[in-house]
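Figure 2 data, in text form.
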Amino acid sequence: MAPIPKMMKAIQIEKTGGVEVLQYKDLPVPTPQKDEVLIQNEFTGVNYIDTYFRTGLYQCPKPVILGREGAGNIAALGPEVPTSFGFKESDKVVYMNTSAYAEYTACPAEKVMKIPQSITTTDACAAFLQGLTALTLVEETHKVKAGDWVLVLAATGGVGGWLCQILRAKGAKTIGTVGGEQKVEVAKEQGADVVVIDRPGQGDVLKTVKDCTDSQGVAAVFDGVGKDTFERSLECVARKGTKLSAKNAKVARPTLYNYIFTREEFEKYSNELFRLMTDQKFSVRTHKIYPLENAANAHIDIESRKTMGKLLLKT
């Protein structure tokens, strides 16, 4: 590994607002503390939640470097990193942690995974947070079985696309909603058996659910939209089904971090995601890769809700 510099480029905000508050600036490279590793980022994932912290919808101390996942190489190990993790300098890794919009990130070692040789760094970063979210929804929040009919809203969105692929691998039957004609084939490619254009005058989601299930309703609704679809989603659920929001029939608003809290849980679901990507040949759809300094353009694009697939920053 090359010597670690003293300064790095990063995207920091000092106040909330529009994309104009995203500052591309020089900051000190962090020093890994106890149980941490220093990662030289190659790619950083852009997630919609990043815009919530930027606008102030979600609060956080300022100044702050945005970002919640990334992938790259281990540049240094901090003190007392467990040897059982098997990390060494130059390992290719993917991680979930804050302060990822930067050339270097110090991350708790327990939230870092080695990237298998069969998976590229780009795909690992594009898949990690959203793939783990979808996997834990299907495994923990509602245990989907082969033959179940399931409704996935925003089926070509980041989590929606992964849900469709995982549900297909499990033998479930998926009804997916999309926002326009241009997204129908993409949803089918990712595993949706039936696709509905969810716009006034173009598709009737409730009627489609009843037609597909003989009016019984679906076993689960994975709803990443929220309040605008809540009542309709409840009408779509079977008598003993589940309405889930990544955002009682049983209603749940799950959080990924609750399901990967321990190292054991984190490794279990990360390894299962890697296995599915390799053995099932899951497609990893990347919408666009932006230079780190163009993070504002990435935020504009993701807020337009016209993207399909993951947005990444190249550091």
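Caption note: The mean pLDDT is 92.
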